[in-house]
Amino acid sequence: MKKLFVIMGALLIAATCLAADKISGAYGHSYRIKDHPLGNIPFGSSIKIKKQSEDSAFVQITLNEATAGSSCGGGLSGVGKLIKDKITLTKTEDKETCVVSITVSNNAAHVTQELNCTGFHGAGCSFDEAASNLPKINRRTRNRKTQQ
């Protein structure tokens, strides 16, 4: 009987780890622009997710996109509310409250909604544009591209 409880406990732990792996991970893309005025620096967007419990996950969104004429860089991090495959992160700084919703499906992270977040990333983009459909990062390829 004791062996049965040990086996059931091990299966429960394994199932919990597999459920965490469904959303936890690094998602993103990066690229370099040949002859860019700022030099050979990496541009791109990324989302890192670490499931903390059945109803919360730590999220870090980082943007550094090459845009013409306006700023698109910054980020947001914190612990969000997790319901199934959707995380809602609310962050307040300098009396500005930003709300971002992120879903994970088909090995990609998607910022599906953004509200009042310009102060966190600049006027040249938005989280739901720049961090939409980011593939899970393959450690070998690192999702890098070079643009001409």
What does this entry show, briefly?
With 148 residues, the chain is an alpha+beta fold. Helices cover 20% and strands 49% of the residues. β5 (86-93) and β6 (96-105) form a beta hairpin.
General description of the model:
The chain has 148 residues and is of the alpha+beta class. It has one domain. It is 20% helix and 49% strand. It has 3 helices and 9 strands, in the order αβββββββααββ. The chain has a 9-stranded mixed β-sheet. The longest helix is centred in the first third of the chain and has 22 residues, at 2-23. The termini are far apart.
Overall, the morphology is: globular
**So how many helices?**
3
Give the total of beta strands.
9
What is the residue-averaged pLDDT?
A: 80
Order of helix and strand elements from N to C terminus:
HEEEEEEEHHEE
Low-confidence stretches: 14-20
Order the strands across the largest sheet as they lie in space: 8-7-6-5-4-3-2-1-9
Write a concise keyword list for the protein shown above.
9-stranded mixed β-sheet, alpha+beta, single chain, 148 residues, 20% helix
